[in-house]
Amino acid sequence: MLLSRPSIELYFGRGGTGKTCLALSRIGPARSILFDINEQEILARHAVVCTTARELVLALQGNARRICWRGFGTLGPAAFEFGNKAAWAAGDLVVYWDEVDFMMEPSHCPPWAYRLINAGRHHGVTIKATARRPASVSRHLTAGATAVYSYAVTGSRDVVYLADFFGRDAAAALPNLGRGQALIWTEHGTTQKKIY
Predict the structure, then answer these.
(1) How much is the average pLDDT of 172-193?
(2) For the segment 151-178, what is each residue's pLDDT rounded down to a tens digit?
(3) Which of 129, 146, 149 is nearest to 36 (CA)?
(4) Spatial CA neighbour of 32 closest among 83, 79, 80, 102
(5) Which residues pair with 93 in a beta bridge?
(6) Other C-beta atoms within 10 Å of 143: how many?
(7) What pTM value is reported for the model?
(8) CB–CB of 15/132 below 8 Å?
(9) Residues 6+ apart with CB under 8 A from 181
(10) Residues of the chain with pLDDT > 70: what percent?
(11) 73-109 per-residue burial string, b: 16 or more CB within 10 A, e: under 16
(12) CB-neighbour burial class of residue 193 (10 A; exposed 0-12, middle 13-18, buried 19+)
């Protein structure tokens, strides 16, 4: 399925605010690869867990709907790019990058990640990514965002950065958002909403 436009959703917030749960709930039943750098149980639940390149390729060639990619223990940092290259080849799926700021920097985006961000839609690839610090994420990723969800963040650089999405007045509320409260930006504007 080719997408008419990119779909890149970003989820920000301090640890434990619910960004992973929200991102996963928005994947739904779509075929997906969950990049699990921290080996979290929530990502492995109802998924085929892959720790080697061969396992990932076989899972993508088979009927696996949800794949938990844990190749970081065997391939190290190269696991991120291998998983992205595999997603590009497979197409028609959701790529979920958990704690994406561990895998890319503000001024650098690995080549296959860059390709997915800028041309993934031609392969039916949707991206969802979480991070604690929006100011630490590649500018290529944030520039391509079609939706941004942010729970409470407290770093002044993060608040200033998110003001470009939410507007200065709305972003000023970010450090004081209550549990379950989030600011949401889409092309239609900004809203504040209790998610859970």
Answers:
(1) 92
(2) 999 889 999 999 999 999 999 999 999 8
(3) 129
(4) 83
(5) 125
(6) 10
(7) 0.94
(8) yes
(9) 151, 152, 192, 193, 194, 195
(10) 97
(11) eebeeebbebbbbbbbebeebbbbbbbbbbbbebeeb
(12) exposed
